[in-house]
Design brief:
There is one protein chain. With about 450 residues, the protein is of the alpha/beta class. The protein has 3 domains: about 110 residues, PDZ domain (Pdz3 Domain); about 160 residues, 2-enoyl-CoA Hydratase, Chain A, domain 1 (Alpha-Beta Complex), CATH 3.90.226; about 70 residues, no CATH class. Helix content is about 35%, strand content about 25%. Strands 1, 2, 14, 15, 18 and 19 form a 6-stranded mixed beta sheet that branches. A 6-stranded mixed beta sheet has the order 11-12-13-16-17-20, with helices on both faces. Strands 7-6-8-9 form a 4-stranded antiparallel beta sheet. It is flat, with a radius of gyration of 23 Å. The N terminus is likely disordered.
Length: about 450
Amino acid sequence: MNLKVAALILCMAIAPAIAQNAPPSRGEKTSQAQIEASHMYQNVLQQVLYLIENYHVDSVSRAKLFEGAVRGMLEATGDPYSRFLNREEQKDFNHSEGGDLVGIGVEITIQGGYPLIVAPMRGGPAEKAGLMTGDRIISIGGQPTRYVGVSKLSELISGEPGSIAELGIQRGGSSFPVRVERGVFQLEYVRTAFLADSRVGYVRLQAFFGEDAGSISKFKKAVQDFARQNVKGIIIDLRNNTGGHVDMARTLSGYFLKKGDVVYRVKSRTDSREFVADGDTELVPPATKVVILVNRGSASASEILSGCLQDHGRAILVGEQTFGKASVQQVFRPLPDETAVLVTTQRYLTPKNRAIHGIGLKPDVEVPDLMPTPQESVYLGSIEEKKMLEAFLKENPQFDPSLVDKFAKRIAAENMSLRPEIVRLLLKREYGIREPDPDTQSDPQLRRALELIQ
């Protein structure tokens, strides 16, 4: 598919749970005071437009001015997840729902005026460059990013595949540069594995999208196959899964519940509702242990599924505190000129009425993730820039565990050092060895999940 190179995969469009059907009209009456205020500000808008067009030192197109007005209106809500998508942004958003992604492969939100990385996409350029959940992008190409707006962020970071995005990253108390090579990559939504030695099924869900590509049917088949194999337990990996379609989260939750069990509750401006498991339920026997892996990049629809199974005592959560994104966006499209708007219409609660927005879910068993230190991230960027991995792969076409020490010595000769676990992860990614081959040697959270099931 020929795609326009996008700047970012933006989690303000992706991370929230997305409602796929338009809500009914609220039917609220407009007061006389509201009507008068509306007329007044429409007049203000018209007068400001006249002043800019006639007196501003630079000529600015009307289309750009009106787009800025619409964006400003949405920003005035104080909700970073309600936003306007111009024609190109909507194209990129539609592609991300379908699985074809272009860019550096990060999902972001805005926090304190800065773009904050919710998660780097597995297998994408940003992950290879060492970017992490929680990293703040403070500059792009030397230009500060605070309060620049989503459209400007996209413009700053866009470029041709193979070109370099120069990012300034803040992590904790440290700031450092990271160079990311833009590229085209494919998102594989569902990966599975059967860990024969432990008799445990493993399923990794990258995002709650891809229904047309078979993501739901693949997940369903995986858990059914595991049940037929009489596994001791099932591990669901939702780490760095920033969410997607709320209906998909409800469907997948039902596989582990009884019909009629509450999956989540929602509150809108005017009412409250609960959504229950229906359709295919109880596909996984109650005696089968379930562990869900979560981290700071697990958000929205991931938290719906995780919080649901945790509340029902159906799963143990292992890992780190989740992101805390408990809102649902409605996509209104198409609008004129092939634009769209995302509007937050609901906030959701867990079955036990836990409010997790801005808080997240606390895992039952806390296990820190294996993450590069700030200095290691700088080294990872240098390794990527010097194309050391590509050269190493040509010299050593087949992966072997002994290559971990060999590559560590190679980078040491360049005055760089990485922990053996980080080197192992790096090499496995470069050799294309990911799920369905989970690696307990370099994954402490997976290791703990297996121990709990055993």
